[in-house]
Design goal:
Helices cover 86% and strands 0% of the residues. The protein has 222 residues and is mainly α. The protein has one domain (2-219).
Length: 222
């Protein structure tokens, strides 16, 4: 029964990767239409809304990957994780996921703006925690006891960092579209195009990091 449960959690872990990368590819292509100056304003805004909606897939996967991975690690005989710690990890990340979705639903309100800042603060905290935890584990072999797992945690923090960078790209789009609405067409399009180019390179970096994380999880190199 324990073996079956472990396999089910591992299956969920793989599914999260699949849906994360699949939806992220949709975000990548939808964003290209947002940056097209030959499309009218309303059509570009519809593509922007589509981009933000598709991005909820990667955002959901990003948040859930850690507790699911932690669950797998906790089920190994060498982990020694108490039920209280396991519950705390799940409660923390599920609460964060709820915040992510409520922020999306309220994105055009003052509440949404406040929640967005809270979510951003949490992301900075998680980035520092994951990179720090992974780095300490690489040096001391504790708490994870395996270099490949320590690297996965560290790179998970890096992925969240790239995600924060890409969020700033979307913020730059907001400024660019506001300029378009005010009649500053050339300046607005230039800003949107520059942000799109930076975002494209950010996407490549994110995919590369995710590919390395997946390889570490499959190969488990010593």
């Amino acid at each position: 029964m324990t073996f079956l449960a472990y396999d089910l959690w591992r299956y969920v872990h793989v599914l999260l990767f699949v849906y994360w990368l699949g939806a992220d590819l949709g975000v990548y292509y939808a964003a290209k239409y947002v940056a097209r100056a030959d499309l009218n304003f309303d059509e570009r805004m519809r593509f922007l809304d589509l981009t933000l909606l598709l991005d909820m897939g990667p955002r959901t996967g990003l948040v859930l990957l850690f507790p699911v991975g932690f669950q797998l690690w906790a089920m190994s005989p060498l982990a020694g994780v108490s039920n209280a710690i396991l519950f705390g990890v799940w409660a923390t990340f599920v609460a964060w996921l709820i915040l992510v979705w409520v922020t999306h639903w309220q994105k055009k309100t003052k509440l949404g703006d406040t929640l967005r800042k809270l979510d951003l603060g949490i992301r900075y905290l998680v980035i520092a925690s994951m990179i720090g935890l992974g780095g300490v584990s690489l040096l001391s072999e504790e708490p994870f006891g395996s270099d490949w797992l320590s690297w996965k945690v560290l790179l998970y923090g890096c992925v969240i960092g790239v995600g924060v960078y890409l969020r700033r790209i979307i913020s730059a789009w907001g400024v660019g579209f506001a300029m378009l609405k005010d009649g500053q067409v050339d300046q607005g399009n230039a800003l949107i195009k520059q942000a799109a180019v930076r975002g494209e390179w950010g996407a490549y970096l994110l995919w590369a990091l995710v590919a390395v994380i997946a390889l570490l999880g499959v190969a488990k190199p010593i």
